[in-house]
Design goal:
CATH architecture of the largest domain: Up-down Bundle
Largest sheet: 3 strands, antiparallel
Strand content: 5-15%
CATH class of the largest domain: Mainly Alpha
Structural class: mainly alpha
Helix content: 55-70%
CATH superfamily of the largest domain: Outer membrane efflux proteins (OEP)
């Protein structure tokens, strides 16, 4: 025969003192959340800039195709005029051949421009995730950027997500180094237990325990040195990031000034070539100019293509400067899209159970796809 008995026990343990390790651990976790939030903002910036580049590429190539088609019509008209003048003996067959050669070159250039436009559409689809809708046009306005380089640098050093991420990581590693130092200390805990046997007899126990490491073979001190080294490494990364971002802002600001000057020059070139072309055509009608002179005077097309390119460059330079300043965000641009309120979500989940929300799982999936831990 066997004797059997059953007992139900309830145990509880509460930490009275741990040197502040638990509180510091929560603080470190908070800064880890802030760092991840800044990293997510950096991803948002890069996605927006790639979308801007894709959009402006379509605008540029569409304008280029339109200009090439217009130029083709002009060259055809020049060829027709050259044939008419040849019929009456004003020019030679050589002049007609020159016009025919220019027409063939114009056809080839149009075909190339059309192919480049289709490639730009494919790049847009890859960057945005859908086909461009309708005819894309130049933005009517551009975001405001500082007129001063020093102001742009100051904003970047204060707001750029890469710098803010590293600032939070510095705080986190500082706290972790404190936790590592405290790991050699002791812990005081309050323990209690209540038991109930099958006969209905109950018993209880209340105890206070103190525990701490006596010997760890240097492991705890090694962990402390490692935490300090990691903090110093993060500080070095922050210093390096500030230098790199300042350099990037200087470069972006310079490119914007160059783009503005190039656009102004292209506008002046168009005005000059229009006057020159008009004069050459009038002189050709009087026999003072050859067909080649007229064809060579058709440089207005090149000037207009240059104007398109410089206009796009100016727009991109503005957004590039915003990117380097840390302001190429949905909030700063006030885009009409649904915004993810990280602060509100943080307040909702900071005291919640460990189970993840649906939004949290979606965010984890996105970060995994982007290879971000």
């Amino acid at each position: 025969s066997f004797d059997t008995s059953a007992t139900v026990s309830l145990l509880a343990d509460f930490t009275l003192y741990d040197g502040g390790r638990r509180t510091l651990g929560l603080e470190a976790a908070k800064y880890a959340v802030f760092a991840t939030r800044a990293s997510l903002l950096n991803i948002e910036q890069n996605i927006l800039f790639e979308s801007v580049k894709a959009y402006m590429a379509i605008v540029r190539e569409a304008e280029n195709v339109s200009l090439r088609k217009g130029n083709l019509s002009v060259i055809r008209e020049e060829l027709r005029a050259a044939n008419d003048r040849f019929e009456v003996g004003e020019i030679t067959k050589t002049d007609v051949a020159l016009a025919e050669a220019r027409l063939a070159a114009s056809n080839s250039t149009l075909a190339f421009a059309t192919g480049t436009y289709e490639q730009a559409r494919a790049n847009y689809r890859a960057a945005v995730g859908e086909e461009p809708k309708g005819s894309l046009e130049y933005p009517t306005t551009m975001p405001k950027v500082p007129d001063s380089l020093q102001r742009a640098i100051a904003i970047a050093l204060e707001e750029h997500p890469s710098i803010n991420e590293l600032k939070h990581l510095v705080k986190m590693t500082e706290i972790n180094s404190k936790i590592a130092d405290l790991s050699t200390g002791f812990t005081i805990s309050l323990g209690s237990s209540v038991s109930l046997d099958e006969e209905g007899e109950s018993s209880g126990e209340l105890s206070i325990r103190a525990s701490g490491p006596i010997f760890s073979g240097g492991k705890l001190y090694s962990s402390s040195r490692k935490a300090i080294a990691l903090n110093e490494q993060t500080l070095a990364r922050l210093y390096s990031a500030k230098i790199s971002i300042e350099q990037n802002v200087r470069s972006a600001f310079s490119l914007l000034q160059v783009a503005k000057a190039a656009k102004k020059s292209a506008e002046e070139q168009i005005r000059a070539t229009e006057v020159a072309l008009k004069g050459v055509k009038e002189e050709a009608g009087l026999g003072a100019r050859t067909t080649l002179d007229v064809l060579n005077a058709e440089q207005e097309l090149d000037a207009r293509v240059q104007l398109i390119s410089t206009t796009v460059d100016e727009h991109l330079s503005v957004y590039r400067l915003l990117l380097q300043m840390g302001r190429l965000t949905v909030d700063y641009l006030n885009l009409p899209v649904q915004k993810y309120d990280v602060k509100k979500y943080y307040e909702l989940v900071k005291d919640s159970p460990a189970s993840k929300s649906q939004k949290g799982r979606k965010l984890d999936k996105l970060l995994q796809q982007l290879n971000i831990e």
